[in-house]
Each structure stands twice: as structure tokens, then as C-alpha cells.
Amino acid sequence: MQVEKMEQTSIDIVRSPEDLADLDELLWNVLWRPLGLSRNIRQELKVDGEAIELISKAGNTAAGCLVAVWTAPEELELRHLAVVPEAHNCGVGRLLVMRLIEIAKKRGCRRLHTIARNTSSTFFRKVGFRRASGAPPDHPVFRKHGITFELMEMVLEPAPEASEPFTSI
């Protein structure tokens, strides 16, 4: 897949079983399969809270996806962000994060945080995150692959409009 024009890329909330399957497959292939992690690792890493799942498609092909979870009434954790290698440096990741920020602000979120891999912390800085206090987790499988983590956050000013209704499957 070649993602040449961002105008052809859509960012949507995951609502259908097909989009959910595409999201799971993309996360598996981009984030976890290369590390030899189990196929059900997403379920093992799952945290409680209402999820926001976004998918980016170039035509009918998934180019990127994002999963975030409400961890408190005004706090959202960006749990997973994946973009297919062919779509790197095309703005897909940035568009996914910007759409998440738009949704978060409309719902009154004041803080967006993530546990960024060292391989993606530069990207998160470019889209407005900064280092957060605290000790990041350490995981032997990730460490074996040279992956460390950094706690990062973004403070948000909620949008003045009323909360946006949101549904997740």
C-alpha cells in the first residue's frame, strides 16, 4: 500500500466488526508480532475504562489505528498507536492523535497521557506531548528488543461545547 495523498485517508471511530478486526490485525502486525508476543497480547494489556478506538483508512485499507482508554473522568490514556510502515511520514499518526484530541476536548478531558516506546517518543513530542513524572514500566520482552519506555503527557483545555456522545463496540 502506498499512502501518497492525505486527502484520501479517512479517520473514523471504530464501529463495525470489520473495522475492529482491521484494528486488531494492524496492532498485531505492527506492534507485537515483530516482538514475538502472543496473538492475544492486546487482551493481556487491556485496562479498565471506556475505550476510544480510531482507524485510518486509505481507500479500504487500514493505514493506522489508535486505542485510548478513559482512566478518570478528565483523563485519557493513549494505549496503542500503530501505522503501517508504508504510511510512515505521511501524517497518518498525527491525524489519529489530532482526532483523539478533538474527541477528548469535547468530552472534557484535561490530560492525555501515554507510555511511549523510545522508538516513538520523538513523534509524541512533535504532536505536543512532554515528559511526565514517574517511573516508566520495564518489560523483559521489550527490553530484549532494545525498547524502553517514557511517560508522556499533554495538558488539554476542554472545548467549550457540550460533551459529544460516544459509542464504542
Give your account of this protein's structure.
The protein is an alpha+beta fold and 169 residues long. The chain has one domain (6-155): Aminopeptidase (3-Layer(aba) Sandwich). The protein is built from five helices and seven strands. It has helices at residues 17-32, 41-45, 92-106, 121-126, 140-144; strands spanning 9-13, 51-58, 61-72, 75-83, 111-117, 130-131, 149-155. Strands 1-2-3-4-5-7-6 form a seven-stranded mixed beta sheet, with helices on both faces. The longest helix has 16 residues, at 17-32. It is globular, with a radius of gyration of 15 Å. The two termini are 27 Å apart.
CATH homology superfamily name: Gcn5-related N-acetyltransferase (GNAT)
Order of helices and strands: EHHEEEHEHEHE
Average predicted local confidence, pLDDT:
89
| Main sheet record | 7 strands, mixed
Side-by-side strand order of the widest sheet: 1-2-3-4-5-7-6
Q: What structural class results from the helix and strand content?
A: alpha+beta
What proportion strand? 25-35%
CATH architecture: 3-Layer(aba) Sandwich
Shape: globular
The CATH topology comes to: Aminopeptidase
By CATH reckoning, the class would read: Alpha Beta
For the secondary structure, the number of strands is 7
Q: Helix segment count?
A: 5
What number of structural domains do the residues give?
1
Measured on Cα atoms, how large is the radius of gyration? 15 Å
Runs in which pLDDT lies below 50 for 5 or more consecutive residues are none
Helix content: 25-40%
First-last Cα distance: 27 Å
